[in-house]
């Protein structure tokens, strides 16, 4: 699986993370949350970024002033893809769980929300896929739309500020079947009630991928008017050229289980 790994720079940590990180990072360090995405063309619509509240994460040193926040498993994989300076080495400077970093303010490259977006909890993040950090595009990802809806409804229960889950969802891609907001349209059509409707969400995701990729047209950005099929690689290249992203290949299950 070939992902685009995005670099979301931390602007402000919550107190819970500050306590843990005290003395562990140089003063001028830039720390990035690193979600892995298959949809770089949707990055204009990022409204937040998810971590699994109970998942274990690390902060890993990439260079003197660059640090990545992701799962240890992803750091290890990246160390064999020339993402860290030394082959197979991924120096860890801190360990946290997702709930420690909920509320972190980060900068999301290309997002219309230039004031920054928040790290929020998502129960369905898998520890075994990508980087276990997931950037949220509720306009085009049914899982993301179901989750932000739920977070806003139960903000107190999740220990977040309601407005963190309510950043405006703007149209990014138009499709013949679902209009300008594919994910909300599918969530409605399939009567998805919560992020726990996993079967229906799986179906919605498949439909959104297919319709978006083969029939979608960009409504925003440098490649506005182009088909998604073309724009995907172009947006990815823009992000890579600006230093905001890099390629990350996920080893397949077979390789993983053979190597332990
Ligand atoms: C932004 C985005 C925008 C995504 C979209 C999807 C969509 P797949 O297809 O199952 O391989 N993702 C990445 N890592 C994880 C994880 N550890 N746990 C849960 N979800 C994860 O899934 C790849 C997509 O699932 C990734 O692409 C990421 O969300 C999420 F408009 O990034 B995506 C129709 C989907 N639309």
UniProtKB/TrEMBL annotation:
Domain of life: Eukaryota
Coiled coil: none
Homology family: Belongs to the class-I aminoacyl-tRNA synthetase family.
Protein name, as recorded: leucine--tRNA ligase
Native source species: Lophium mytilinum
Shown stretch of the complete protein: 308 to 567 of 1154
């Amino acid at each position: 699986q070939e992902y685009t790994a995005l670099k979301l720079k931390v602007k402000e940590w919550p107190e819970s993370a500050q306590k843990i990180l005290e003395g562990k990072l140089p003063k001028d360090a830039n720390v990035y949350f690193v979600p892995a995405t298959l949809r770089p063309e949707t990055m204009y619509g990022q409204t937040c970024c998810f971590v699994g509240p109970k998942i274990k994460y690390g902060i890993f040193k990439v260079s003197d002033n660059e640090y990545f926040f992701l799962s240890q498993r992803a750091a290890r994989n990246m160390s064999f893809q020339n993402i860290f300076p030394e082959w197979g080495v991924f120096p860890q400077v801190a360990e946290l769980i997702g709930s420690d970093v909920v509320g972190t303010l980060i900068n999301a490259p290309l997002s219309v929300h230039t004031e920054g977006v928040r790290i929020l909890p998502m129960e369905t993040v898998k520890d075994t896929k990508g980087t276990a950090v997931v950037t949220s595009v509720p306009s085009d990802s049914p899982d993301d739309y179901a989750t932000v809806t739920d977070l806003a409804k139960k903000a107190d229960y999740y220990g977040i500020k309601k407005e963190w889950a309510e950043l405006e969802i703007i149209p990014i891609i138009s499709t013949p079947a679902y209009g300008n907001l594919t994910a909300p349209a599918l969530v409605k059509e399939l009567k998805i009630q919560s992020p726990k409707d996993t079967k229906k969400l799986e179906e919605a995701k498949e439909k959104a991928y297919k319709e978006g990729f083969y029939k979608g047209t960009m409504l925003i950005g440098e490649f506005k008017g182009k088909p998604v099929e073309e724009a995907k690689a172009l947006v990815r290249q823009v992000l890579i050229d600006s230093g905001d992203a890099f390629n990350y290949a996920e080893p397949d299950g077979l390789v993983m289980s053979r190597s332990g």
